[in-house]
Amino acid sequence: MGDACAPPDWLMRESFDMVYSNSLIEHVGGHQRCAALAEVVHAAAPLHWVQTPYRYFPVEPHWLCPGMQFLPVRARAKVAASWPFGFMSSTDSTAVEDVLSAALLSVTEMEHYFPESEIIRDRWLGVTKSIVAVRS
User: Is the dihedral of CA 88, 34, 53, 99 positive or negative?
Assistant: First the structure.
């Protein structure tokens, strides 16, 4: 198992044309880890496409639950332990860990991590559902 925020030295010595990341950055673990992942992306290739679900989309994308991302952690854990949809199956004992494993990002955060990139808003029915940092 690897760590995208701290890849092995031999990998970083390789030459890549582009980094493509789809729905990863929200799972790496907080601001410092997001910043570390962004540094890896910038160092690994001159071009990138880094996509993440948008924090303010009305439905939390991991559990497919409306508004869940706006609840306090304890309330999100209660929802996660009983909500029947989404890709994560939580029990009461793992629910807090599960909800803390997904921290959705805002446009401001993506602009901070990727200041030289264009931030694209991917929309569904006119509402931004995900954001993409693109350097081309």
Answer: positive
